[in-house]
Design brief:
- The protein is an alpha+beta fold and about 425 residues long.
- The chain has a single domain, classed as TIM Barrel.
- It is about 20% helix and about 25% strand.
- It contains eight helices and 19 strands.
- It has a 15-stranded mixed beta sheet that branches.
- The N terminus is likely disordered.
């Protein structure tokens, strides 16, 4: 037998030493590899972060409620009829609208909104706050731009077919509030929601068609995006006057017009910029029309009997119970019952009944100390008459209004 083979036999002391060393190395490596592959050792760099400090909450008393319309078309939108700017503003003043943004389709004027809608001699008011904006109308969907002052809308129109990163950069440079329009409709918003400040969760008087928009909103909120929910009638047609001739869509003026729905903002002052700021910050609720009650939503986070925050506000959870309050302010229908639905993190949390005489309810819950959570309100009940747009009531059904969320542990830098 070959002497080398003899030395390599398992019984050979040299063989045992080599084998033992190899086995030790293998076991050590295997343990290290298994430990590195263990799920418990993984650290997710994108895990939600519970912020240590959040900006202070603004005053709950130093402000004014303003009601307005954020999606309406004048004659500068080519498919609109009998709807001059003067007619829109006259109607708005009659029903108590405080602010309005006339959002004509920018593609109808090749992006030159400044020399059309804004340059119209009728674009002026001594009582209504006029926002500057337009409906950004693209093959990838529609959005509304809002601003307290004139801006270069042509730039936004010119990048409509560019990548989202380009659009987002231009939007930021313009300093405008960009909102996703009818996100679940035919002209749904086909861009990234990371570059918008709000989402149209209630489009037109037809409440039933907004269910998917609400679902998209809840998806965005649950993922950490603090997006304001807003409304807009998307009205295109007015009532003929003088020599104006009716069109096949004239009937819509009595079914869906300014204020169906109405978007309320709690603004720090009666200025256009304060309206934009409130819309961005989320101190906003929506009612079915200008006369329907306003849904107000507050929270007492230390249960000292004083409300500390309202819808749109974001604070750090304490791990202790908080008391929430829902109020219906305005013209409630007496001797009637309203149903208050509380939505927590996208799911129904509770249902409460309130009367028209005492339209308020409180509930208690403990927002989780770690991780995000949000609460928002939907109210159903008797319709409030809107004599100027009488057919809208049947379209809105028993939907009265909704609030924006109260947030806990949302990262402002997300």
């Amino acid at each position: 037998m070959n002497s080398f083979l003899q030395k390599s036999l398992p019984g050979n002391p040299l063989f045992k030493g080599i084998a033992g060393t190899a086995l030790a190395i293998f076991l050590a490596y295997s343990g290290s590899y298994a430990q590195s592959q263990s799920p418990s050792a993984h650290s997710n760099p994108w895990a939600p972060v519970t912020p240590e400090v959040l900006p202070p909450i603004a005053s709950l008393s130093k402000g004014v409620w303003l009601k307005g319309e954020l999606h309406v078309h004048s004659r500068h939108s080519k498919e609109s009829f009998n709807n001059s700017i003067a007619k829109i503003l006259s109607f708005s003043k009659a029903v108590g609208i405080d602010y309005i943004c006339i959002t004509d389709h920018d593609n109808h004027v090749n992006g030159d909104v400044a020399h059309n809608t804004w340059a119209d001699p009728e674009f002026k008011s001594d009582s209504i706050l006029l926002l500057y904006g337009a409906e950004w109308t693209t093959v990838r969907g529609h959005g509304n731009a809002f601003s307290a002052k004139p801006y270069d809308h042509q730039r936004l129109y010119d990048v409509r077919d560019q990548r989202d990163v380009v659009v987002g950069a231009v939007k930021k440079e313009l300093g405008i509030h960009l909102s996703a329009n009818h996100p679940s409709g035919k002209d749904h918003f086909g861009y990234s929601y990371d570059m918008v400040n709000s989402i149209e969760v209630w489009n037109s008087a037809i409440w039933s068609k907004n269910a998917k928009a609400i679902m998209i909103w809840d998806d965005m909120l649950s993922s950490g995006r603090k997006l304001t929910g807003r409304g807009g009638s998307d009205a295109h047609h007015g009532t003929p006057e003088g020599t104006e001739q009716p069109s096949k869509n004239t009937y819509q003026a009595k079914a869906n017009y300014v204020g169906t729905p109405t978007t309320w903002v709690f603004a720090t002052a009666r200025t256009s910029q304060a309206v934009i700021d409130a819309l961005t910050n989320g101190r906003v609720c929506i009612s079915s029309n200008p006369y329907a009650p306003r849904v107000e939503f507050y929270a007492d986070i230390d249960q000292d009997g004083k409300m500390d925050m309202m819808m749109g506000d974001n604070t750090k959870a304490t791990g202790k119970p908080a008391k929430f309050q829902v109020k219906l302010t305005g013209k409630t229908v007496s001797d009637s019952t309203y149903t208050v639905n509380v939505i927590k993190n996208g799911d129904k949390f509770g249902t409460y009944q309130v009367s028209g005489k005492i339209a308020s309810v409180e509930f208690t819950d403990t927002p989780q100390a770690q991780g995000r959570s949000y609460y928002r309100i939907e109210v159903q009940g008797p319709s409030t008459p809107y004599p100027q747009v009488p057919d809208s009531i049947a379209l809105s059904g028993n939907m009265v209004g909704l609030s924006n969320p109260i947030y806990f542990n949302f990262d402002p830098n997300f």
